[in-house]
Amino acid sequence: MRTRIGMGAGVALALAVGWAAPARAQHGPKVLVIYDMEGVSQIVSPADCSFGTPGYPAGRDALTEDVNAAIRGLLRGGAREIVITDGHGSGNPEPDYDRSRLPTGARFEIRDAPYDAYIDVVDATFDAVVAIAMHARANTPGFISHTYFGHTTWNAGGLDMNESMLVAASAARFGVPLILVTGDDVLREQVAAFSPHTRYVTVKTAESRNRAVARPPADVARDIEAAAEDAIRNLADIPAWRPTQLRGQFENVFGYNLSAHAALAANYPGARVVNDRAVAVETDGFLEAYLTFRALALFTSPARTLLLFRALPNVAGGAAALEAAAQEAGVSPSFVPAGDAPDITPFTYRTRHGYH
Q: Which tops the pLDDT comparison, 119 or 332?
């Protein structure tokens, strides 16, 4: 547990450094567990992270085992409440974690409306955050390495962001530390570089972006459980991640793997073109930076599809296929309503359990 301070001193300290002090647990810490799927111990093929593929059921089973190992360790170390949220989005209408195997002492965050697992769950009532099955940032040799979407990179105030850093920065808004991360050997070095006190369990070795070698599941479960217990028992020694680069106003450079992505991003208000695959946007604080990154990641994602549609008429039979597809989809240039109750729900990847 972290050292207790008086209410007046705590408020003054929070105001001085610009973050909200977390509530102090009376009977043990409250912990948020957010999981991804690329860093699951037994997943060694990219397809196994996607709902509907032959390897997904086994991947889901391994994810549940990794999360439950962390829960066991946290409970043994004295956690009083554990909240789980889905940070992946395999396409499964249900959480990727198998809730039928949820241990006593933990609950899964299900809401009445869609929410963002990264920023909408953590608050000042939590004492710690754990990130399970994470992956390395884009343009590094980790297994399925990427940052948020597959076509983006994010440099925030000079820091090359990965999703573990995103989790840590979001939690730090409330003075909450990231105490444990699991993933491959490449991510281990990245976590050690930005948050050396955060505990880490290497669950597999990345041979490339498309292949990894898994450790024995029993060994992984033992190590995650032990690391979780150690992290929660030594919570006071793990500080929240509050780098000076993410305070106040700073410049973000958003990179893309196609110039067509950057061409779309250049339309964002205040965006400055850096080169044919990057734009820069100045933001005030981490939350605004994240929301800008998220908006641009989603806004630019159709560029690849647009390029394919432009190329299709030049391929043999492409024009006829495109016309047939347009008719099947009901696509027309008309502004006349197609029905009394059209589905105009905005596209989102967020759901009532986090990500879809």
A: 119
CA distance 146 to 143: 9
pLDDT tier, 339 (very low <50, low <70, confident <90, very high otherwise): low
CB atoms under 10 Å from CB of 155, counted, come to: 18
Report which residue type is found at 273: V
In Å, how far are 75, 169, 336 from 233, measured between CA atoms? 10, 22, 63
As to burial, measured by CB atoms within 10 angstroms (0-12 exposed, 13-18 middle, 19+ buried), residue 275 is exposed
Buried/exposed 196-218: b ≥16 CB within 10 Å, e otherwise: eebbbbbbbebeebeebebbebe
- In the chain, what are the domains? 19-237 (3.40.50.10780), 251-327 (no CATH)
Residues 6+ apart with CB under 8 A from 42: 58, 59, 62, 204, 214, 217
CA distances (Å), 288 to each of 114, 247, 252, 335, in order?
A: 20, 11, 11, 35
- Which amino acid is it at 26? Q
Give the type of residue at 92: N
Cα Rg for the chain, rounded, in angstroms? 22
Residues whose CB is less than 8 angstroms from the CB of residue 269 and which lie 6 or more positions away in sequence, other chains included:
none
Contact call for residues 183 and 202 (beta carbons, < 8 A): yes
Least Cα distance to 181 among 122, 133, 123, 137 occurs for: 133
pLDDT-derived band at 11 (thresholds 50, 70, 90) equals: very low
User: Count of CB atoms within 10 A of residue 99's CB?
Assistant: 14
pLDDT single digits (tens) 38-56: 999 999 999 999 999 999 9
The one-letter amino acid at 228: A
Strand partners, 272: 280
* H/E segment holding residue 207: strand 199-208
Which tokens go with 182?
């699991």
Q: Which H/E stretch holds residue 130?
A: strand 128-132
249 forms beta bridges with 284
What's the average model confidence in pLDDT over 176-180? 98
Taking residue 238's Cβ as centre, other Cβ atoms within 10 Å add up to 20
Tell me the pairing of strands 128-132 and 178-184.
parallel
Rounded Cα distance, 111 and 138, in Å: 31
